[in-house]
Amino acid sequence: MGETAEGALPGIDAATTRACLAAPFGVPVELFPDLYLVRVPLPHNPLKALNSYLVLSDDRTTIVDVGFNHPACEEALDRALAALGRTWDGVEIVLTHSHPDHTGNLDRIYRDGMAVLANLHSFQEVENLQDMEAHVFDPLLLKAATPHQSGLCFEKGKPTLHVSAELLPLKNQPAVTFLREGDVHRAGPYAFEVLETPGHDPWHICLYEPSLKALIAGDHVLERITPSIASWFPAYNALEEFLTSLGKVRDLDVARVLPAHGAMFGDLRGRVMQLIEHHEDRLQEIYDLVAEGHDDIVSISSHAKWRYDNWREWPLDQKFFSMGETMAHLIYLVCEGKLKQTICGDEYRFELP
Ligand SMILES: [Zn+2]
Ligand SMILES: [Zn+2]
Hints:
This protein is of the alpha/beta class. The chain has a domain at 14-123 and 168-272: Ribonuclease Z/Hydroxyacylglutathione hydrolase-like (Metallo-beta-lactamase, Chain A, 4-Layer Sandwich), CATH 3.60.15.10. It is built from nine helices and 16 strands. One of its GO terms (molecular function) is hydrolase activity. Keywords: Hydrolase.
C-alpha cells in the first residue's frame, strides 16, 4: 500500500507526519497506542536528528536507538521519559545497528541490569572490525590528505582519522542479548519480528510489526538519504549484502516505514527500487572510471561524481566516507568478475580482467 491521495500514511495523517518532523527534541509524538517517536538531536552532524521509537508496556519501556554519546542526546531521552511518566527503571534498549548515532548514548544512560538487545554478541565485535579496517584506511587517508588537512592526527607516527568524541566506539560495553532473524520481540501490545538486514552495517536489523504494517527501518531504508555502504576488505562484499537486504524488505506488507532519520513514508517498494537503481548507476560509473585507467581508490574516488565538487579540498572525514563507498562498489565488481584487483603491500589496484 502506498500513500493516500493527500500524501498521508494510512493510520498516520499528514498532520502527524509534520508534527514528527517539527517536534522539539525530547517531546514524544504518539504514532500508535503506546508507540511514540522521539527526536534526539545529533549535534554537529549533517543528519541533525535521530528518530528514537519508544514503546510502553505495563512494566517496561522499550527504546529503539539512543543517539550519540552527547549530553543533548541524554537530555532528550530524559525529557521523553518524564513526559510519558516513566523513569529509567524498567527501560530496555533495542539497537537497530552499531553506529554511534544509534548506540553512543549507552555510555551515558546505561544502568546496572538494563537489558540491551541487538544483532551482535558483544560490542567487542564492532571494535575488532574497526581496528582491522584502520589497517586499510589509514594509509589511504594519508594519501588522500592535502598538506595541512585538519582531521588527520598522528599517533606514534601513524596517521589516524581524528574523530570527535561522539564518534568513538563505546567505552563501556554492556552485555548484549542477541536478536536474530525470526525472533519476535514483544513490547506493549505489539510483536516485532526481527529481520536481519546487513549492508549499511554488518549488524543491522529492522523490526516489522505486522498488525500495524509498520517497519522500524533503522538506517536500512531512509526517505531521502541514501544509506552509506562502505567496505574496506575484498572479503566483505557489503554492497551485495545491502542489495540482498533491500530485496528482503521490498515485498513486505508495509504501510508505514519508521526510519531512524528524516520523515516517515509509505512507499517502501518505490524507495527500495530507487536505491537499487542508484547503486546500479554507481557501479557502472565506477567501472567506467577503471576502464579509463583510474586504478587506485584515491584516484577513482576523486574522479567519481559526488554532490559536491572539488574532492581534493573536502574535509578528511568526507573523503573517508567517499572512499569506503567507492571501495564497496569496487569490491562488488571484483566479486562479479568484472574487475580484477591486485594488492601489493597496502596498495590496492583495480583493472579490467
Ligand atoms: Zn547507520
Ligand atoms: Zn544513523
